[in-house]
Design brief:
445 residues; mainly alpha; 3 domains; two-stranded antiparallel sheet; 15 helices; globular
Length: 445
């Protein structure tokens, strides 16, 4: 076996004082200037008993974690777990299931879901856990989180706008099939190897399911009665089967869009030691080449426009309609997309609701209320430029103008949920314009 000892942070100071190096050069590097006290460990001055209160999220400034019941906790958008459980996630590349004729290969997708579920279930048993307690708790529920990446690129290939009703419908169908066939595989696994140990104490025995879509028969496109009945008869191997992780790193390896997110930028400049080059979304590159528009001048224009094609005269309207990036999409449609997926996902979903820098406190309040009322389990918002350093940047950030005219039912849904949509686009507009997003919004100062 291979082990690697890492000494970092405040431990460097202790290492220097107690052990040290014979090599004077190395010893000099262990200076107090580079050894700040680790933020994870604190001194408990007193413990006071207080009444119990429900809470869902909080952050201790500077620490990005909190201590509760003796555990150091970190917030997670996609996988709420009980103490000592561990997450076991896997993500399928949705873009890979788009066929050459630009249709989606549902049959291959369903087969792959079942294989992936069996793989993740095996991981629970072959994995090496950091502590015995984590192993025991993980194996009691045997939760897995099968999700996806490459959604945005798949929609580009299918020529479906992300925030159109067709786009929302695709997300619903995708996640329903994902959970349905993952559960079908988990039931088959239960027949072979047995149910998860806590099964008989779970709500499954009463015919319940861990996702909202099951309780809305009008939304079904698959036979969920069959799944429920099979679980009652045979049980199920995994307490939960699906989640949607951010896939920030693995999506870069596969060169596809991350998780459920819309593409952040269609084009951006990348600087390396030998110079600069343009990173171009693969489907956008195909579309430009088909029209004879692929050249450095156009790529530079898109990159300088924050990676968006909106407002660029040379780009045809049909391309503008389909190739939307994160800041082209109003925040309420980000939330709507997440809600369509959450209907069928067992755990939760990692999703960034991108908001332009000029949004108001009232806008953010509306975003949280809309998310709560439409049934999200978690919400992450990011207001552009709210941090001095951003993980993803483009040469020139978008000003946040909603230049798209995608027609959908999101505003109507918000109204029905009691969300005030007055001035939601930054200025008073007619009801008809509001429904169609036909107003290009101006930044608010």
């Amino acid at each position: 076996e291979y082990y690697e000892l890492v000494v970092s942070g405040y431990s460097c100071k202790l290492f220097k004082e107690i052990i040290g190096f014979e090599n004077s050069e190395k010893l000099e590097k262990l200076t107090l200037d580079n050894t700040k006290r680790d933020p994870t460990f604190v001194t408990v001055k007193s413990i006071i008993e207080v009444e119990e209160n429900e809470f869902y999220d909080f952050i201790v400034p500077e620490y990005n974690n909190y201590i509760a019941n003796g555990l150091i906790n970190h917030n997670c958008g996609e996988e709420p777990l009980y103490p000592y459980e561990s997450c076991n996630l896997g993500s399928m590349n949705i873009y890979a299931f788009v066929k050459e004729d630009n249709t989606f290969d549902w049959e291959s997708f369903r087969k792959s879901v079942k294989v992936a579920l069996r793989f993740l279930d095996n991981v629970i048993d072959v994995n090496k856990y950091p502590t015995k307690k984590i192993e025991e708790h993980t194996k009691r529920s045997r939760k897995v989180g099968l999700g996806f990446m490459g959604l945005s690129d798949a929609l580009f290939a299918l020529k479906i706008p992300y925030n159109s009703e067709d786009g929302f419908s695709f997300i619903r169908t995708l996640t329903e099939n994902l959970t349905y066939y993952a559960m079908e595989a988990s039931i088959e696994r239960a027949k072979e190897r047995g149910v998860f140990p806590l099964f008989h104490d779970s709500a499954y025995v009463d015919g319940e399911m861990p996702f909202e879509g099951f309780y809305h028969r009008e939304r079904w496109t698959l036979n969920w009665d069959k799944i429920a009945e099979n679980i009652k008869v045979h049980g199920i191997r995994n307490a939960e089967v699906t989640t949607v992780a951010p896939t920030g790193s693995i999506s870069m390896i596969f060169d596809v869009s991350s998780g459920i997110e819309p593409q952040f930028a269609l084009v951006y400049e990348k600087r390396v030691t030998v110079g600069k080059f343009f990173y171009v979304d693969i489907e956008f590159e195909k579309a430009l080449k088909e029209r004879g528009l692929y050249d450095d001048r156009i790529l530079k224009k898109v990159a300088d426009n924050g990676g968006s094609v909106q407002g660029i005269e040379e780009i045809p309207d049909d391309i503008k309609k389909v190739f939307l990036v994160a800041y082209d999409i109003p925040w309420w449609d980000h939330i709507r997309a997440q809600s369509e997926a959450q209907t069928w996902i067992c755990a939760s979903i990692s999703k960034t609701v991108n908001m332009p820098k000029w949004v108001t406190v009232e806008d953010i309040e509306k975003a949280y209320m809309f998310s709560y009322k439409i049934g999200l389990k978690s919400l992450t918002i990011y207001r552009d430029t709210s941090k001095s350093v951003q993980v993803l940047v483009t040469p020139s950030q978008r000003q946040g103008t909603y230049a798209t005219i995608t027609e959908n039912k999101t505003i109507e849904i918000m109204k029905n949920l009691g969300i005030d949509v007055t001035n939601i686009l930054g200025k008073k507009v007619s009801e008809e314009a509001l429904k169609k997003y036909s107003v290009v919004e101006e930044p608010r100062i």
